[in-house]
Amino acid sequence: MIEVFAIGGYSEVGKNMTAIKVDDEIIILDMGLYLPAVLKYEEGDPRELTTKDLIKIGAIPDDEVLHKYKNQVKAIVLGHCHLDHIGAAPFLARHYDCPVIGTRYTIEVLKKLLEEHEYKLEGRLKPINSGTHLEISENLKIEFINITHSTPQTVLIAIHTKYGIIFYANDFKLDNYPVIGAKPNYDRLKHLAEKENVLLLIMDSLYSNSEGKTPSEKVAKEMLKDVLLGTKSEGNLIIITTFSSHIARLKSIIEFGKNLNRKIVFLGRSLFNYVKAAEASGIVNFSKNVEIIGYRSLVKKKLREIEKQGRSNYLIVCTGNQGEPDAILTKIANKKDIQFELLPNDVIIFSCRTIPTEMTIKNRENLEKRLKQFHARIFKEVHVSGHAFHEDHREIINLLKPKHILPIHGDHEITKGLEILALELGYKLNKTVHLGEDGKIIEIN
Ligand SMILES: [Zn+2]
Ligand SMILES: [Zn+2]
Questions:
Q1: 363 and 409 in one domain?
Q2: pLDDT at position 429, please?
Q3: 106 alpha carbon, closest ligand
Q4: Helix (H) or strand (E) holding 230
Q5: What is the whole-number distance in angstroms between the Cα of residue 171 and the centre of ligand 2?
Q6: Distances (CA, A) of 314 to 151, 235, 258, 323, 380
Q7: Shortest-distance ligand to the CA of residue 207
Q8: Do 203 and 271 share a structural domain?
Q9: Are residues 207 and 179 in the same domain?
Q10: Are 9 and 149 found together in one domain?
């Protein structure tokens, strides 16, 4: 029998965690963080919270349902490196005695998180490549299939069981012209769908209500090119902020920065961590062309140097795309901690979208208000999404023809689009298309 434990990511956007129980063995998929809960915590330093406290404030998934099965958990498998998928692993994974499996890049990012929290998972981290299998036990095998998203080495996880295959596609988009890495491995998916019984598809439904198809990252690259090479910026500084784990976007920025003959500098701790992890994984070698500075004191020193040597020779990439109070761009704009003067017509590019939570919307508004006081030129939403839209969902369902579908990555309002699509395609509510909820256990027959 197969039971799906919907642990996190079914009632909110974040803290993704699902456990699949196949007879008496369990595989855990993702252990993510719910960042708004951490940011909202006002009673002190969230770094001092215990695992129990973090569960209580809703920052990490509540895995209590698994406590009685602790010894049956055979593997923790991570699909990609975003914090809403791996950010709780430093706190939760050590309570289980099993390997933690991901692609090389995902594991390298996890290592940085573990270092930050001073936790160790010694000898348990197991990187495997997409396109390969791993035997978990006599009855369970996992396979990593290449898929595209907004960070490298994202995989679609296939769990091979005697009842059929369970696919875990959280997160993904269908990008046929990716800027880094290969396009989705449609051949393998088609092969598995034709040759085997596809029992269940657990699918990222964050944008299930958005019609059409998510544009390729190549489109974002063209948008960036248009702003960077198509507008006049001589004599002024260019500052770009984007998601630190978006290595493909960073690669495009470097390409155009070189076209403009500017020195390229990356500033900020999270940029440092994600880029170094990508270099350690052999994905890119940015250090050849870019100075990457993580420590705050060195960032300040570099900014003084930029002012002295002529700001118009530089393109800065820095943290702060969501207006986070602690990020470099915010500190520059607020003249807090960092003394660096923005001038009229300096170019500020937000290569991202604002994550739609109350706090980030407010943070971004504040940041933009400050930037406008300097009369900087602001370019927003130079970006395409990393998540599949409605028609991408249809493609995957038609390709895999799963017996059951379970939407994830939001509450029912958010996953509604996939529910409607599934019903349209002949699935039956609560029989073959299931509505998750944190804490719910779903039997798959
Ligand atoms: Zn993601
Ligand atoms: Zn996600």
A1: no
A2: 98
A3: 1
A4: helix 217-230
A5: 5
A6: 26, 10, 10, 22, 20
A7: 2
A8: no
A9: yes
A10: yes
